[in-house]
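> example.struct
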Protein backbone atom coordinates (compact mmCIF):
# COMPACT_ATOMS: atom_id res chain seq x y z
CA UNK A 1 0.00 0.00 0.00
CA UNK A 2 1.34 3.41 -1.00
CA UNK A 3 1.74 5.98 1.77
CA UNK A 4 0.88 9.49 0.62
CA UNK A 5 1.99 12.75 2.15
CA UNK A 6 -1.60 13.35 3.24
CA UNK A 7 -1.54 9.95 4.98
CA UNK A 8 1.47 11.15 6.95
CA UNK A 9 -0.24 14.41 7.90
CA UNK A 10 -3.38 12.55 9.00
CA UNK A 11 -1.32 10.08 11.03
CA UNK A 12 0.40 12.94 12.84
CA UNK A 13 -2.82 14.82 13.55
CA UNK A 14 -4.49 11.68 14.89
CA UNK A 15 -1.90 11.72 17.71
CA UNK A 16 -2.64 15.30 18.80
CA UNK A 17 -5.25 15.71 21.57
CA UNK A 18 -8.26 17.94 21.08
CA UNK A 19 -9.11 17.07 17.48
CA UNK A 20 -8.67 19.22 14.39
CA UNK A 21 -8.47 22.99 14.73
CA UNK A 22 -10.86 25.21 12.78
CA UNK A 23 -8.32 28.04 12.73
CA UNK A 24 -4.65 27.17 12.40
CA UNK A 25 -1.50 28.11 10.52
CA UNK A 26 -0.76 24.40 10.14
CA UNK A 27 -1.67 24.00 6.48
CA UNK A 28 0.01 22.75 3.32
CA UNK A 29 1.98 25.68 1.89
CA UNK A 30 2.80 24.25 -1.52
CA UNK A 31 2.77 21.04 -3.51
CA UNK A 32 0.41 18.09 -3.95
CA UNK A 33 -0.09 16.11 -0.71
CA UNK A 34 -1.84 13.27 -2.56
CA UNK A 35 1.48 12.12 -4.05
CA UNK A 36 3.38 9.19 -2.55
CA UNK A 37 5.87 10.23 0.11
CA UNK A 38 9.49 9.45 -0.74
CA UNK A 39 11.06 10.85 2.40
CA UNK A 40 10.46 13.39 5.14
CA UNK A 41 12.62 16.26 6.36
CA UNK A 42 11.83 18.07 9.59
CA UNK A 43 13.18 21.54 10.20
CA UNK A 44 12.55 24.74 12.11
CA UNK A 45 12.18 26.66 8.85
CA UNK A 46 12.22 25.62 5.19
CA UNK A 47 14.98 27.86 3.86
CA UNK A 48 16.36 27.44 0.35
CA UNK A 49 19.32 25.53 1.78
CA UNK A 50 17.01 23.17 3.67
CA UNK A 51 14.97 22.60 0.51
CA UNK A 52 18.10 21.75 -1.47
CA UNK A 53 19.19 19.31 1.24
CA UNK A 54 15.77 17.64 1.13
CA UNK A 55 16.19 17.16 -2.61
CA UNK A 56 19.64 15.61 -2.03
CA UNK A 57 18.09 13.21 0.48
CA UNK A 58 15.34 12.21 -1.95
CA UNK A 59 12.64 13.63 0.34
CA UNK A 60 9.56 15.28 -1.13
CA UNK A 61 7.90 16.30 2.16
CA UNK A 62 9.21 19.04 4.45
CA UNK A 63 7.62 19.55 7.87
CA UNK A 64 8.48 23.05 9.05
CA UNK A 65 7.70 24.76 12.34
CA UNK A 66 7.71 28.35 11.10
CA UNK A 67 6.46 30.11 7.93
CA UNK A 68 8.04 29.39 4.58
CA UNK A 69 7.08 32.60 2.77
CA UNK A 70 7.94 35.40 5.22
CA UNK A 71 4.43 35.90 6.59
CA UNK A 72 2.64 34.47 9.63
CA UNK A 73 0.03 32.73 7.46
CA UNK A 74 2.25 32.40 4.38
CA UNK A 75 0.11 34.90 2.48
CA UNK A 76 2.03 34.80 -0.78
CA UNK A 77 -0.05 37.56 -2.38
CA UNK A 78 2.21 39.97 -0.50
CA UNK A 79 5.25 38.70 -2.36
CA UNK A 80 4.06 37.82 -5.86
CA UNK A 81 6.19 40.58 -7.40
CA UNK A 82 9.27 39.62 -5.36
CA UNK A 83 12.01 37.78 -7.25
CA UNK A 84 13.15 36.12 -4.00
CA UNK A 85 9.73 34.55 -3.42
CA UNK A 86 9.37 33.52 -7.06
CA UNK A 87 12.74 31.77 -7.08
CA UNK A 88 11.99 29.90 -3.86
CA UNK A 89 8.59 28.81 -5.09
CA UNK A 90 10.13 27.64 -8.35
CA UNK A 91 12.71 25.59 -6.41
CA UNK A 92 9.90 23.85 -4.53
CA UNK A 93 7.63 23.31 -7.53
CA UNK A 94 10.36 22.01 -9.85
CA UNK A 95 11.31 19.37 -7.29
CA UNK A 96 7.76 18.38 -6.37
CA UNK A 97 8.23 19.34 -2.72
CA UNK A 98 5.29 19.59 -0.32
CA UNK A 99 5.77 21.92 2.65
CA UNK A 100 3.46 21.57 5.64
CA UNK A 101 3.65 23.69 8.74
CA UNK A 102 3.50 21.90 12.09
CA UNK A 103 3.35 24.66 14.68
CA UNK A 104 0.04 24.91 16.53
CA UNK A 105 -0.49 21.16 16.72
CA UNK A 106 3.07 20.35 17.86
CA UNK A 107 2.70 22.86 20.69
CA UNK A 108 -0.66 21.23 21.57
CA UNK A 109 0.96 17.83 21.97
CA UNK A 110 1.01 16.73 25.61
CA UNK A 111 3.61 17.54 26.66
CA UNK A 112 4.54 20.28 24.18
CA UNK A 113 6.57 18.68 21.37
CA UNK A 114 8.98 21.57 21.04
CA UNK A 115 9.41 21.69 24.81
CA UNK A 116 10.27 17.99 25.02
CA UNK A 117 13.04 18.37 22.46
CA UNK A 118 14.54 21.41 24.17
CA UNK A 119 14.40 19.88 27.65
CA UNK A 120 16.10 16.74 26.37
CA UNK A 121 18.78 18.78 24.61
CA UNK A 122 19.47 20.63 27.87
CA UNK A 123 19.43 17.44 29.95
CA UNK A 124 16.84 18.95 32.28
CA UNK A 125 14.41 16.04 32.44
CA UNK A 126 15.05 15.63 36.19
CA UNK A 127 14.20 19.28 36.88
CA UNK A 128 10.78 19.43 35.22
CA UNK A 129 8.18 20.94 37.54
CA UNK A 130 4.64 19.76 38.18
CA UNK A 131 2.13 19.86 35.34
CA UNK A 132 3.04 22.12 32.47
CA UNK A 133 5.11 24.53 34.57
CA UNK A 134 7.90 26.19 32.57
CA UNK A 135 9.91 26.79 35.76
CA UNK A 136 12.88 24.53 36.50
CA UNK A 137 14.79 24.29 39.75
CA UNK A 138 18.32 23.47 38.59
CA UNK A 139 21.54 23.01 40.58
CA UNK A 140 22.84 26.42 41.65
CA UNK A 141 24.94 28.19 39.06
CA UNK A 142 25.59 31.74 37.94
CA UNK A 143 23.97 33.62 35.07
CA UNK A 144 27.27 33.58 33.17
CA UNK A 145 27.72 29.84 33.69
CA UNK A 146 24.11 29.16 32.71
CA UNK A 147 24.53 31.14 29.50
CA UNK A 148 27.74 29.28 28.67
CA UNK A 149 25.95 25.97 29.24
CA UNK A 150 23.16 27.04 26.86
CA UNK A 151 25.71 27.84 24.16
CA UNK A 152 27.27 24.39 24.38
CA UNK A 153 24.09 22.31 24.67
CA UNK A 154 22.09 24.21 22.02
CA UNK A 155 25.02 24.95 19.70
CA UNK A 156 24.66 28.73 19.94
CA UNK A 157 27.44 31.09 18.90
CA UNK A 158 26.18 34.10 20.85
CA UNK A 159 23.57 34.71 23.55
CA UNK A 160 22.33 38.07 24.84
CA UNK A 161 22.10 38.70 28.57
CA UNK A 162 20.49 41.38 30.71
CA UNK A 163 21.62 41.17 34.33
CA UNK A 164 24.63 40.38 36.47
CA UNK A 165 26.70 37.50 35.08
CA UNK A 166 27.90 36.68 38.61
CA UNK A 167 24.39 36.45 40.08
CA UNK A 168 23.71 32.99 41.57
CA UNK A 169 20.51 31.36 40.35
CA UNK A 170 18.49 28.17 40.65
CA UNK A 171 14.96 29.00 39.52
CA UNK A 172 14.84 29.25 35.73
CA UNK A 173 11.83 29.82 33.49
CA UNK A 174 12.05 28.48 29.93
CA UNK A 175 9.90 30.23 27.32
CA UNK A 176 11.12 29.22 23.87
CA UNK A 177 10.38 31.04 20.62
CA UNK A 178 8.65 34.40 20.79
CA UNK A 179 5.97 34.22 23.50
CA UNK A 180 5.58 38.01 23.64
CA UNK A 181 6.63 40.63 26.12
CA UNK A 182 3.55 40.48 28.30
CA UNK A 183 3.99 36.76 28.91
CA UNK A 184 7.73 37.16 29.48
CA UNK A 185 7.31 39.99 31.97
CA UNK A 186 4.51 38.15 33.73
CA UNK A 187 6.85 35.20 34.20
CA UNK A 188 9.62 37.43 35.53
CA UNK A 189 7.17 39.00 37.99
CA UNK A 190 6.86 35.65 39.75
CA UNK A 191 8.75 35.25 43.02
CA UNK A 192 9.90 31.76 41.99
CA UNK A 193 11.63 32.96 38.80
CA UNK A 194 15.14 34.42 38.92
CA UNK A 195 16.10 34.15 35.26
CA UNK A 196 14.13 33.80 32.05
CA UNK A 197 15.49 31.88 29.07
CA UNK A 198 13.66 32.84 25.92
CA UNK A 199 14.01 32.78 22.15
CA UNK A 200 13.54 36.42 21.25
CA UNK A 201 12.32 39.62 22.86
CA UNK A 202 11.46 43.10 21.62
CA UNK A 203 14.38 45.21 22.82
CA UNK A 204 12.14 47.96 24.21
CA UNK A 205 10.01 45.59 26.29
CA UNK A 206 11.33 42.64 28.30
CA UNK A 207 15.04 43.63 28.26
CA UNK A 208 14.15 47.07 29.61
CA UNK A 209 11.88 45.51 32.22
CA UNK A 210 14.79 43.39 33.43
CA UNK A 211 17.24 46.29 33.30
CA UNK A 212 14.94 48.31 35.56
CA UNK A 213 14.43 45.32 37.86
CA UNK A 214 18.20 44.96 38.27
CA UNK A 215 18.57 48.71 38.91
CA UNK A 216 15.99 48.34 41.69
CA UNK A 217 18.10 45.64 43.33
CA UNK A 218 15.87 42.74 42.29
CA UNK A 219 17.41 39.32 41.61
CA UNK A 220 16.35 38.99 37.98
CA UNK A 221 18.08 38.21 34.67
CA UNK A 222 17.22 37.54 31.04
CA UNK A 223 19.04 35.28 28.58
CA UNK A 224 17.97 35.60 24.94
CA UNK A 225 18.94 32.47 23.01
CA UNK A 226 17.56 33.25 19.55
CA UNK A 227 14.23 32.02 18.20
CA UNK A 228 15.75 29.38 15.91
CA UNK A 229 18.16 28.05 18.51
CA UNK A 230 15.52 27.85 21.22
CA UNK A 231 13.09 25.71 19.17
CA UNK A 232 15.17 23.73 16.65
CA UNK A 233 15.68 20.83 19.13
CA UNK A 234 11.92 20.35 19.19
CA UNK A 235 11.86 19.72 15.45
CA UNK A 236 14.83 17.39 15.75
CA UNK A 237 12.88 15.43 18.38
CA UNK A 238 9.99 15.15 15.89
CA UNK A 239 12.06 12.62 13.91
CA UNK A 240 12.26 10.30 16.91
CA UNK A 241 8.56 10.78 17.65
CA UNK A 242 7.47 10.17 14.07
CA UNK A 243 9.57 7.14 13.12
CA UNK A 244 7.49 4.54 15.01
CA UNK A 245 4.32 5.91 13.39
CA UNK A 246 5.68 5.73 9.82
CA UNK A 247 8.54 3.20 9.91
CA UNK A 248 8.45 2.65 6.15
CA UNK A 249 9.42 6.25 5.29
CA UNK A 250 12.96 7.70 5.61
CA UNK A 251 12.93 10.68 8.01
CA UNK A 252 15.74 13.12 8.76
CA UNK A 253 16.13 16.42 10.54
CA UNK A 254 17.85 19.24 8.65
CA UNK A 255 18.70 22.17 10.94
CA UNK A 256 18.20 25.59 9.39
CA UNK A 257 20.65 27.31 11.73
CA UNK A 258 20.86 31.04 12.29
CA UNK A 259 20.60 33.48 9.38
CA UNK A 260 22.99 35.84 11.16
CA UNK A 261 26.76 36.11 10.98
CA UNK A 262 28.34 37.35 14.21
CA UNK A 263 31.36 39.65 13.99
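> example.seq
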Amino acid sequence: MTTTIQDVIDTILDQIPGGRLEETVDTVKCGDPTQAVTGIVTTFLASCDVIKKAVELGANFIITHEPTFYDLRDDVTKFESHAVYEAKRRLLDENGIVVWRFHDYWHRHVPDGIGIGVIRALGWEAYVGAGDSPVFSIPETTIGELAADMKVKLGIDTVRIVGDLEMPCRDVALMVGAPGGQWQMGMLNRDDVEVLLTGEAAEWRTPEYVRDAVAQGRKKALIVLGHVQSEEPGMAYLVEWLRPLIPEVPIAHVPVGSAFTYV
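> remarks
The two ends are 52 Å apart (CA to CA).
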